[in-house]
Amino acid sequence: MRKEESEQKLNKNIEELERQMFGKKKLPKEEQNKLNKKIFENILIANIIMAFLYFISIGSLNIETLIFITDLKVFSIMLVIFAIFLFEVSYKKQNIKLALHGIEVLILAIFILFCTYIYTVYLKNFHSYVASVSLLFAIYYIIKSIIIYRKSKKKYIDSLNDIEEIIKK
Description:
By secondary structure, the protein is mostly helical. It has one domain. 91% of the residues lie in helices and 0% in strands. The radius of gyration is 25 Å and the shape is elongated.
């Protein structure tokens, strides 16, 4: 009888510890909302880039060659200027997030600049080239969102860890 009672108490204690441990691993609403905002921002940027590349692909079909190449050069220069602006703002504010967005915009600008070459030399492969780069951007932003999620969750769980405070005492 006593053995059964002690086993039941032990099982109840184990279940209570598991609930406490798993309860701490779940993010609170505020943290989850902040995290969702970051992930939504990245997915929105990915969608904007994919739509932009889609319009470039459609433009290649409907616009004359010389005008289209000029448009690509103008888009590329505008994106480089925007990337420089992001670098300047990130430097003044010491914001790594803006610097990363600046690098992403710069990579997009370089791709658009290469589009002029691809369009003139490999006209038949232009659409597949644009589609594959659009897919690469989408994959990049999905991986980036997963990394942000994991890092934020790990940071939150580590903030709940009391071991450092116990060691200091």
